Amino acid sequence: MEIKKAIKFMIISTMAFACMNATVKYLVNVNAYQIVFFRSASSLLFTFGFLFRNKIPILGNNHKLLILRGVVGVTSMTLFFMSVKYLSVGTAVSLRYIAPIFAAMFAVLFLKEKIKPLQWLFFIMAFSGVLVLKGLDTNVNTYGLILVLIASVFSGLVYIIISKIGNSEHPVVIVNYFMVVATITGGVLSINNWVNPKGIEWILLFGLGVFGYFGQVYMTKAFQTASTSQVAPLKYIEVIFTLSFGIFLFGEIYTFWSLLGIALIIGGLVLNIVYKEKRLNN
After folding, report:
1. Please, how many CA atoms are within 13 Å of residue 224, restricted to the half-sphere of its CB?
2. Ranges of H-type helices in the chain
3. CA dist 203 to 23, 24, 248, Å?
4. Are 201 and 27 in contact (CB under 8 A)?
5. What is d(CA 127, CA 91) in angstroms, rounded to the nearest whole number?
6. How many CB atoms lie within 10 A of CB 156?
7. Exposed (0-12), middle (13-18) or buried (19+): which is 175, by Cβ within 10 Å?
8. Secondary-structure percent of the chain, ordered helix, strand, coil, rounded to 5
9. What is the largest CA-CA distance in the chain?
């Protein structure tokens, strides 16, 4: 029964994130800095509301790490939003998901963790998907690819910073810092790059924060309901939803090579999650 509930939560979460991705793609004429600003500012209504309602100290304890998490996170988010303007949305999301590979490498360097040989094999499998996408799929824009790969590197760093923060901070405090830093950064960078949104674009810009918030909430609920090995692979349903939006809403075309590359990326990362969880339980 618990796993059914977790699956339901994760489907809602991945659908919310896929809607956010599709909205970013639709807002192709709006500057990426503005998208960061509106996505973050509208989420602050939820995060501040939660913290005040539950009387949780907003400033937290690890101020330097919390601010660093915010700076690294907004860098990753901005680069990802920029990449969506050059890549099909499904491809961009799939490439962003190689962040765990970079996180594992950073963990070896900074946290002295060890990676098993089989895990390296899974990472090679996932990264080969990137090579297939770029080497064999002529639709992949090089500039967009570089942007999303750098975004993934910074996303990998986020995992390490959150690991260093540990359980000393409430999860919503960490997210709130991220949203505050992103709102300020996006707002300042938008000043000289402002593009006036038109009509429905205003609603969509504010909707970004709503989609992002509910994606986070239901993902958290899913992980709280069932074990990581049961829930984590379901995160990649986001790619399927996003691919579908790309095809039906934007007329994007995915070649055999692009689908093979995406399958290798997702397959390698899912196998790594399952392997890690099995080792922890043995």
Report:
1. 8
2. 2-26, 32-53, 63-83, 89-96, 99-110, 117-136, 142-165, 171-190, 200-225, 228-231, 237-250, 256-281
3. 10, 12, 21
4. yes
5. 14
6. 21
7. buried
8. 85, 0, 15
9. 56
Query: Predicted confidence band at 267 (pLDDT cuts at 50, 70, 90)?
Result: very high
Apex 45 CA angle, 28 and 71, nearest 5: 65
Place of tokens 């809403």: 249
pLDDT digits (tens, 9 = 90+) for 42-51: 999 899 999 9
Structure tokens at 109: 């360097």
The continuous run of DSSP H or E covering 98 comes out as none
Q: Is 59 helix (H, G, I), strand (E, B) or coil?
A: coil
Mean pLDDT of 56-76: 93
Tokens of 240: 């399927």
Classify 166 in phi/psi space as left (phi over 0), alpha (psi -120 to 50) or beta.
Answer: left
The pTM for the full model equals 0.90
Q: How far is CA 64 from CA 10, 48, 57, 61, 151, in A?
A: 32, 20, 16, 9, 21
